Amino acid sequence: MPRRWRDLSAALGWGVVLFTIGLWVGGGGIQDLGSTAGFLTSTGRLTGLVGSALLLLQVGLMARIPWVEQAWGQDELTRVHRLVGFTSFTLVLAHIVLITLGYAASTDAGVWGTLVDLVVTYPGMLLALAGTLALVMVVVTSVKKARARLRYESWHLIHLYAYLGAGLALPHQLWTGAEFLSSTLATVFWWGLWASTAGAVILFRVLLPLWRSFAGSLRVVDVRAEGPDATTVTVAGRGITRMPVRAGQFFQWRFLDGPGWSRANPYSISAAPDGATLRFTAAHVGDGSRRLATLRPGTRVMVEGPYGRLHDGVRTQRKVLLMGSGIGITPLRAILEDLPQGPGDVTVVHRVRSRSEAVLADELAELAAARGARYLMVEGPRITGRASWLPEQARHLTDVDALREIVPDVAHHDVYLCGADGWMTAARAAARAAGVPRDRVHLERFTS
User: Fold this and answer.
1) Domain co-membership, 187 together with 46
2) Does some domain include residue 448?
3) What is the pTM of this model?
4) For residues 403 and 431, what is the distance between their CA atoms, to the nearest angstrom?
């Protein structure tokens, strides 16, 4: 998907925000700023309008619209998702405070009495209160410290309440908001924005995955242990032939084998797609991934995807460096298998804590030899007291020097990275410092 689609979608998002501000100005928002009550109420309406628009854009980002998701890539989309989400939440809270203060300034009921009156007597306000509480729960659990304390499955389930929060918080504005009802243009704009967002969620998060999964009759055909702490699962079905999947991309997977089936987990494919099967390899890091070892052939599978820009379509150079840490090597193994290359064009750096934990190492070595690539395992415990992609025994080297020692002309490579967040951050910093342009460093993150 060309990057121009990213620019187009960004321009569309900014256009929605600017048009929203224009509706506020056209509705007399500036003229109402003369008095204290008018200033508080009018700015409260503005923050509510922009917050609502951003909230709908945030839900649109969660809708996994294919050309948006693949134009941005998971890493950039995660950053935008987080920025838009926290900004919209802050504006919604500002809207509540400013509107309450503005109404209170023009009555004798006081702040608390005004707030109670707004919630009890205005249409849709009880729903808005419930929606706001749902959004508070989502935002609080998305803060990094809180997120780190939650299992992925629990966080993912809570995160879905963002849909509920948006669905409950916005109707009161559609029913009673002055700027929503001030003109036919405003009414059509807001109802159209709300309906198109809801339609995108229903189409791309519900109907398309259901069609691909059940019409395609996806089922588990093989489950293989990769040592004591990882499992490889192979899925087959006639629907795979119609999936536009590329090596390195990932799916959200659900296995209909009992309790826990409703929670999806993101796993990258670990073998190049062959049109008949999809294969992924996952480390046992949570309840969802541990239960993979108990799957049985014949289990029905639901998928969402494919997602991500970590594939050969973003390649710009003849030479490629694939750097993976731990289980992050799995999508790079698929890319290595599928990547057009000549002898010496591709270098694979496999970072592991110990050789016994090197998932798919034998496959990688054999595949690299067969394809004329260079495979290097970098093993050892990580360096303490320093953010680095290197092991402790390489402490005497800087990250950049070590990278140039392995790949002297790394500045003329595309660099693909996959691993833990901290490791990828250090590896990306080393690649950039070694002269690799920003648009030639490709990575994916699964955390928000």
Assistant:
1) yes
2) no
3) 0.81
4) 8
